[in-house]
Amino acid sequence: MIQSMTGYGKAEVCWADKKIHVEIKSLNSKSMDLSTHVPSLYREKELEIRKMLNTCLLRGKVDFSLWVEAEAKNEVPVINENTVSAYVEQLRTISQHIGIGFNDTNAWEYIVRLPGLTTTTKQEELTDGEWEAALQGIEKAIGQLQDFRLQEGQALYAMFIEKLTNIGNLLAQIEPYEKNRVNTIKNRIVERLNELKGVDIDKNRFEQELIYYIEKLDISEEKQRLTNHLDYFRQTLDSDEDGKGKKLGFIAQEMGREINTTGSKSNQAEMQNIVVKMKDELEQIKEQVLNVL
Known about the structure:
The protein is of the alpha+beta class. The protein has helices at about 45-55, 80-100, 105-110, 130-195, 205-215, 220-240, 245-265, 270-290; strands at about 5-15, 20-25, 30-35, 60-70, 80, 120.
């Protein structure tokens, strides 16, 4: 079954007093176009994350985000004793210089308003436990995105089969006009020649030229090749190979060449109308094949 490159996955895991959030978005792209957004604490694991995403997702414009939400705590700030001592010493010195009395007890009223009195401790290293929890979230988000891609792929598969069938039916509609146009072309040429007065026509040479002209307009090979391409497209859809999007795109290009050649050789309005309809069906295939992984 084919997969779409469009997908979305999100996961949330808890570890200690934290919630680790993972979000992955994917759109179509000719190659792997990966953007990662992780907190500074996880920068050491960014290469590992990118390798995992490249291996699992293969292709697409992928946007990966990981962020950590810490639960609020009633932590008591730690007063920095060295900072307080420095402030007190400076206040004493300044008081002596300008001749103002200094009272250690009353000094607190001013010291508590000064910056840098308290410090808080923060985790600066990523622990193995937190990373294991984050990996679980990443794997879960990737799994959700892949499920999303499969669902989108099923819809694309149904659309492709419908369009391939339509092109095959339109190709069959050309046959009656193809058979009749040989006599139409021959009669038209004969009529034009009969209008020429006093001109002798070599019937053998005329038949040779007519056969040559009709062979140039023959579309039997184009019809056969287009039929083969339609079958090959279906076989590729049903195959188990990975990354079929590019291959399907190449097959669609070959289908377009045969349809265009058929149109250029068609000298009847009815045949050309059918070719236009075939082109319309093929354009829808080529547009959506860009989304196939």
